[in-house]
Amino acid sequence: MLGDLRVRVHRQNLELPRNGLVASTSGNASGRDPKSGRIVIKPSGVAYDELSPADLVVLDADGTVVEGVLRPSSDTLSHLAIYRAMPAVHGVVHTHSTFATAFAAVGRAIPPCLTAIADEFGGEIPCGDYAPVGGEEIGRAVVDGIGSSPAILLRNHGVFAIGPSVEAAVKTAVMVEDAARTVFHALQLGTPIELPSDEIARARQRYLADYGQR
Q1: φ/ψ of residue 159, rounded to 5
Q2: pLDDT digit string (tens) for 51-98?
Q3: Cβ(70)–Cβ(86) under 8 Å?
Q4: Angle CA(29)–CA(35)–CA(41) in degrees, nearest 5?
Q5: In whole angstroms, what is the distance from residue 118 CA to residue 144 CA?
Q6: Span 168-182, pLDDT tens digits
Q7: What is the spatial distance between Cα 99 and Cα 164, in angstroms, rounded to a whole number?
Q8: Fewer CB within 10 Å, N side or C side of the chain?
Q9: Closest Cα to residue 44, out of 31, 59, 56?
Q10: In terms of CATH, what superfamily is 3-210?
């Protein structure tokens, strides 16, 4: 079932440890099929180097397991809450990447002090409220706090990234950590200089219109 999406979600889950965004079995990526609305997600507690496309779990929009013998991710309810609230989102990623999570630990947004942040995020990478793990509360905190950004930090927790595909969501998660690492080091030197709002808007629009292949 959803063989192509399984392969894509599996491949993108493997990008998380490859990019240093997760440790051990933490973190997860999911993708939603636009036609059926079904979701493919990483199983709970399975090591990335032991994961295969067949291990991924297929769920319906209510969270009922449609196919798979393993338990889905412990963050499944949060992913489902995001998908229900955001119809244009078809990929969700959660990580505890080191530098971004350091900002989350102190409840601090990542300021828009780099052109790369303006391009990728269109402003600061916000930090949302704390929410307990295990239910829909984290998903609701993501929806309530993310605004127009494709990523959010959650206080005392980590990173959630979203996108129109699982590939886009993983790319965003990678860029969150890259931005967080640079800003963390900048803070050791002084106060980062934020870009003006009009320049952020210009850079974001140029990036969306001109970057990459068409």
Answers
A1: -120, 140
A2: 999 999 999 999 999 999 999 999 999 999 999 999 999 999 999 999
A3: no
A4: 20
A5: 21
A6: 999 999 999 999 999
A7: 25
A8: C
A9: 56
A10: Class II aldolase/adducin N-terminal domain (3.40.225.10)
CA distance linking residue 23 with residue 76, whole number of Å: 19
Residue of 214, 71, 206, 92 whose CA lies nearest to 143: 92
Give the strand order in the sheet containing 65-67.
65-67, 57-59, 39-41, 28-32, 91-95, 158-163, 151-154, 127-128
Name beta bridge partners: 162. Answer: 92
3-state secondary structure 94-126: EECCHHHHHHHHCCCCECCCCHHHHHHHCCCEC
Structural domain spans, the chain: 3-210
